[in-house]
Automatic annotation (TrEMBL):
It comes from Polystyrenella longa. This is Cytochrome c oxidase subunit 2. InterPro entries: CcO_II, CcO_II-like_C, Copper_CuA, Cupredoxin, Cyt_c-like_dom, Cyt_c-like_dom_sf, Cyt_c_oxidase_su2, Cyt_c_oxidase_su2_TM_dom. Keywords: Copper, Electron transport, Heme, Iron, Membrane, Metal-binding, Oxidoreductase, Respiratory chain, Translocase, Transmembrane, Transmembrane helix, Transport. Its EC number is 7.1.1.9. Residues 3-101 form the Cytochrome oxidase subunit II transmembrane region profile domain. It is found in: Cell membrane; Membrane. Subunits I and II form the functional core of the enzyme complex. Electrons originating in cytochrome c are transferred via heme a and Cu(A) to the binuclear center formed by heme a3 and Cu(B). GO terms for cellular component: plasma membrane. PROSITE patterns: COX2, COX2_CUA, COX2_TM, CYTC. Belongs to the cytochrome c oxidase subunit 2 family. GO terms for molecular function: copper ion binding; cytochrome-c oxidase activity; heme binding; oxidoreductase activity.
Length: 383
């Protein structure tokens, strides 16, 4: 049986998309066909002997031998060699996939109910894992609540993500495109929603400048996985670029953050809440400006900008009655203050409240002060 049969006939798995996949598939298929062969041999001989040596009328059964040293040695030693070989290929695969190369590209992953956050070397974070093609990538992982497990079927990698400690895995992607990433450890009611993507980008061609390519591809219709990795990272890190140019509002950026920061896992944007929405938190739509009682003390609170900002920075401070205190602290996912304001503007836009199109109020205040100072200086000159 040819090695190609073991390596490429993976009927139960997605196409191989990492350097680890071929070895793992080969080991799997070798063990599978070995099991099929022994199953056929044992069942076939059993059926033959049952037919050949069945009881017959008038025939005395021959005396069975008490033992046969040659056969006993054969069925002990031969399987022993097979088991040793299985241990060898298993250990070799484990060793090569356990320790990441020293030149691996570092990414940190945080798992929490029920989403993933990936932190890149420039401190940008995203809910989708983006990696460069043909580059070893090491993902260091920890959980913010319960045990999760990061699983990328196309890469054949899976590792538990544990609270209060770090684990890691590494891979080297060999195909461009988008691939599924799952949580493979049951972690609560919305465990099956803890799904995201791995997007594999080509590297930037030698001699090309990141900033030049960033401008050239700013409005490109190319699929995201065809944009060079360095260009994607520079573009994604500058999330307010279109606000400053007037192409987007803060509410538009807020929608992007809602999707990338994991808000969508617990908060709907269609007004549905509780069991009807499958979400654990209040909806972003239909609550702004309303008054609700708190779960502790029963005090009344108005859902306004201050309440939303406080709830994002300290989720356990004022929990709305009827909802559990399960929202984790998410401040580590925000790179700057404007991101909080962008999400607030997005929530306001869902509720028909007028939103600001540019900088948040804090920044606008500085500009107002400067304008007032300039106006005062002009008045003094005129006097």
């Amino acid at each position: 049986m040819s090695p190609s049969l073991f390596a490429h006939r993976s009927f139960w798995m997605p196409p191989q998309s990492s350097t680890a996949a071929e070895g793992i598939d080969w080991s799997f298929m070798f063990i599978y066909w070995l099991s099929v062969g022994f199953f056929a041999l044992i069942v076939g001989l059993m059926a033959l002997f049952v037919y050949k040596f069945k009881r017959k009328q008038g025939v005395e059964p021959p005396k069975s031998p008490s033992h046969n040293l040659k056969i006993e040695v054969a069925w002990t030693v031969l399987p022993l060699f097979i088991v040793f070989y299985l241990f060898y290929i298993g250990f070799e695969g484990f060793a090569s996939n356990y320790v990441a190369p020293s030149n691996s590209y570092p990414i940190t992953a945080h798992g929490k109910k029920w989403n993933w956050t990936f932190y890149y070397p420039n401190s940008y974070n995203d809910g989708v894992l983006h990696v460069p093609l043909d580059t070893p990538v090491e993902v260091k992982m920890t959980s913010l609540d319960v045990i999760h497990s990061l699983f990328i079927p196309a890469f054949r990698v899976k590792k538990d993500v544990i609270p209060a400690r770090y684990t890691s895995l590494w891979f080297k992607a060999t195909e461009l495109g988008e691939f599924n990433l799952f949580c493979a450890e049951y972690c609560g009611q919305q465990h099956s929603d803890m799904i995201t993507k791995v997007i594999v980008h080509p590297p930037l061609e030698a001699g090309k400048d990141v900033l030049v390519e960033k401008e050239r591809l700013a409005d490109s219709p190319l699929p995201e996985y065809e944009i060079p990795y360095e260009v994607w990272l520079a573009t994604a890190s500058d999330i307010f670029r279109n606000v400053e140019s007037g192409k987007e509002t803060l509410a538009d950026v807020g929608r992007t953050l809602y999707e990338k920061r994991g808000c969508a896992q617990c908060h709907s944007i269609d007004g549905t809440e509780g069991a009807s929405s499958g979400k654990k938190g209040p909806s972003f739509k239909g609550n702004f400006g309303e008054t609700f009682s708190l779960s502790k003390g029963g005090d009344q609170v108005v859902v306004d900008e201050n309440y939303l900002l406080e709830s994002m920075k300290d989720p356990s401070m004022k929990v709305r009655n009827g909802f559990e205190n399960i929202m984790p602290v998410i401040s580590s996912q925000f790179r700057e203050e404007r991101e909080y304001h962008a999400i607030i503007e997005f929530i306001k836009s869902l509720n028909g409240v007028e939103t600001i199109s540019g900088q948040p109020a804090a920044d606008s205040g500085e500009e107002t002060s400067e304008s007032e100072a300039a106006s005062e200086e002009t008045n003094n000159t005129e006097e």
